[in-house]
Amino acid sequence: MTDNTASDILRIAVAQLNPTVGDVAGNLAKAREARADAARQGADIVLFTELFLAGYPPEDLVLKPAFLKACERAAQDFARDTADGGPGVIIGTPLKRKSGTHNSIIFADGGKILAERYKLDLPNYGEFDEKRVFQAGPEMQGPVNFRGVRLGIPICEDIWGDVAICETLAESGAEILLVPNGSPYYRGKVDVRHQVVIRQVIECGLPIIYANQLGGQDELIFDGASFAIGSDKTLAFQMSQFEETVNVTTWKRSRAAAGAQSGNNSDGWVCSEGPMSKIPEKEEADYRACMLGLRDYVNKNGFKNVVLGLSGGIDSAICAALAVDALGEERLRAVMMPYRYTSKDSLKDAEDCARALGCRYDIVPIFEPVEGFLHTLTQLFEGTKEGITEENLQSRARGTILMAISNKFGSMVVTTGNKSEMSVGYATLYGDMNGGFNPIKDLYKMQVYALARWRNTHVPPGALGPSGEVIPNNIIDKAPSAELRENQTDQDSLPPYPVLDDILECLVENEMGVDEIVARGHDRATVTRVEHLLYIAEYKRRQAAPGVKITKKNFGRDRRYPITNRFRDGG
Ligand SMILES: Nc1ncnc2c1ncn2[C@@H]1O[C@H](COP(=O)(O)OP(=O)(O)OC[C@H]2O[C@@H]([n+]3cccc(C(=O)O)c3)[C@H](O)[C@@H]2O)[C@@H](O)[C@H]1O
Ligand SMILES: Nc1ncnc2c1ncn2[C@@H]1O[C@H](COP(=O)(O)OP(=O)(O)OP(=O)(O)O)[C@@H](O)[C@H]1O
Ligand SMILES: NC(=O)CC[C@H](N)C(=O)O
Q1: What is the C-alpha separation between 489 and 338, in angstroms, rounded?
Q2: Catalytic (active site) residue 167
Q3: Residue ranges of the CN hydrolase domain (predicted)?
């Protein structure tokens, strides 16, 4: 009930949910369900994530007046729900006000909106582009009095930057900070978030609750892993990563806590009850991010099933495993498309992989289309040497067949290029690059191997696929090959993957110079060649399907290089 008498116990539910961008009615329905669930668990208040009603990030959708109106209406409706005497709510929504369009929250209780708060620090780096569509909120936005407890509500980036928003809230009397976030995954991000929040707790002396969104949104993966750091700077609770959940946490007033952290005599808040989930290790986390990203992309875009070319190589095998884990065996169709260079081993490995995963497996030879193209082009190509042109026809025949299956049966094509290949353009445009979504686009080849090995000995929570050796070890052990000509291996055209990946990580992830990379022990000619290949493949990447972001520098959202570019560090 709405009552401003200070209580000594506060039950705060954190709704770590998977909204869909643009589905305002669906997101409101989800929020209502979560609030009812939290009410049953005895919550006083439910904290939702950043821009929950819109789904995060809504990008240019917030430039549409009709979208803003739908969000405003949903926020008003949800606020009215709180007249039932159940939990109050803090929920993110875009709001258009005289001062502009804001990335906001509404705070509602007792059927009314008690307060609105606007994000002050709009992130505009990496994958974020918020200054483009939002206006920053004013500097002074104090805490909100909720049933006698003063709650501060900075929004996501507000606690990341150098602006002293948490400290200002503490100085204005806030007792706990509740932070709605849309914080995308990259490897190791959970630790980074903990450090950011600990730094703020040191500055402001208040406990901070960090509620993060869940789910895939195009390239971005929101991994949840919501948590709180108490005023003693230790982890007060930790929610699970990659899972939708509503957890109620109990907070108690404690004079000892306040005295310890600020030396003053006022009361502080201590978490006495909350989850303490284990955060998965790196291979598991990356694998689950890829799985969640593929699942949400396929489901949120309304595809019933997916199709991919299964070659007997590692990239298509891990994509098949991810598809079965994300969607179930009955939703994947794997197609082997042999040509004259396809080895017996590849045919066997592809079949073994499909059998281990339990998915549908078709063999569609491509002799006729490839020979047909070659025949059609004979006259035109007379006197020229055979080479990549003819090789690429194989890839294009495969890509065309996959797109035909997609058109006929409505299955989305899963495309399988890893980050090493995408970096140097080792993939055929309108061939194996065909496809709607790429679950391994941001994994270097050596990481693909590590994840494949990991998956053969683990089944991640929520996976729909079987246990055991789902990626036959022969696929992991053999030399990678595109099999576009006799006895071809990737290493005919590229440096060995451990070398290539290290150089690429230096160039892409760390923006290192050629001299610095050479100083790590690499051959200068190799480094300059890789740098050149990286630059000239930009045109391909611009035409590539989106894929799951795993690193701090994925292609597309984070790393944005010009296509036309004559700069070469290596001369
Ligand atoms: N700056 C630019 N802006 C716009 N377009 C540009 C361009 N530069 C080249 N192009 C165009 O791109 C074409 C070359 O690109 P593309 O046709 O993709 O062909 P390309 O890159 O020459 O060959 C594909 C490469 O991928 C390798 N690969 C590896 C693994 C698997 C597979 C597979 O297919 O299964 C292939 C294959 O061995 C080969 O090295 C040029 O003919 C030109 O039309
Ligand atoms: N014979 C084939 N049948 C079906 N699909 C194929 C075939 N050859 C290539 N493809 C498709 O083209 C993609 C690109 O080939 P590529 O050689 O890069 O990957 P891979 O064969 O899965 O792995 P690796 O590079 O380790 O051999 C494959 O992942 C697959 O989707
Ligand atoms: N949505 C945001 O403001 C996110 C910003 C923050 N730096 C993060 O990655 O979590």
Answers
A1: 17
A2: no
A3: 10-253
Q: What are the tokens at 331? A: 């939703």
Per the omega criterion (within 30 degrees of 0), is the bond before 57 cis?
yes
Closest by CA to 249, choosing from 201, 208, 292, is 208
Q: Is the CB of 493 under 6 A from ligand 1?
A: yes
Least confident of 258-267, 470-479, 503-512: 258-267
Model confidence at 325: pLDDT above 90: yes
| pLDDT (0 to 100) of residue 266 | 59
Number of Cβ within 10 Å of residue 375's Cβ equals 9
Check: complex ipTM more than 0.90: yes
Among 17-26, 138-147, 186-195, which stretch is predicted with the lowest mean pLDDT?
A: 138-147
Quick one: the chain helix, strand, coil %, rounded to 5? 40, 20, 40
- Provide the whole-model pTM: 0.96
Contacts of 345 (CB under 8 A, 6+ apart): 312, 474, 478
Q: Is the CB of 327 under 6 A from ligand 1?
A: no
* 407 in a known ligand binding site: no
In the numeric block, the tokens 């808040």 are attached to: 269
Give me the phi and psi of 178, to 5 degrees please.
Answer: -110, 115
Ligand number nearest CA of 492 is 1
Going by alpha carbons, the residue nearest to atom 5 of ligand 1 is 539
User: Average of pLDDT values for 58-78?
Assistant: 98
**CB-based contact 204:169 (threshold 8 Å):** yes
Does 312 belong to an annotated binding site?
yes
What pLDDT, in 10s, does the model give residues 84-136? 999 999 999 999 999 999 999 999 999 999 999 999 999 999 999 999 999 99
At residue 436, does pLDDT exceed 60?
yes
Does residue 262 register a pLDDT over 90? no
SS3 state of residue 97: strand
Task: Write out the two tokens for 507.
Answer: 């160039």
Residue type, 198: I
Hey, whose CA ends up nearest to atom 1 of ligand 3? Answer: 182
Binding site annotation covers 486? no
Q: Which helix (H) or strand (E) holds 533?
A: helix 524-536
- Report yes or no: 269 and 175 within 8 Å, Cβ to Cβ: yes
Q: Which atom of ligand 1 is nearest to the CA of 392?
A: 34
Please check whether residue 395 is in contact with residue 402, taking contact to mean a CB–CB distance below 8 angstroms: no
Residue matched to tokens 């292609």: 555
- Structure-derived torsion over alpha carbons of residues 418, 419, 420, 426, reported in degrees to the nearest 10: 70
Tell me whether residue 156 is one of the annotated catalytic residues.
yes
Q: Are 119 and 106 in contact (CB under 8 A)?
A: no
Instruction: Give me the chain's average pLDDT, please.
Output: 96
50 is catalytic: yes
Yes or no: say if 371 and 378 are a contact pair by the CB < 8 Å rule.
no
Q: Where are the alpha helices (DSSP H) in 215-343?
A: 255-262, 282-300, 314-327
Closest listed residue to residue 359, CA positions, set 384, 335, 391: 335
Q: Write out the DSSP string of 465-492.
A: SPSS-SS-HHHHHSPP---SSTT--GGG
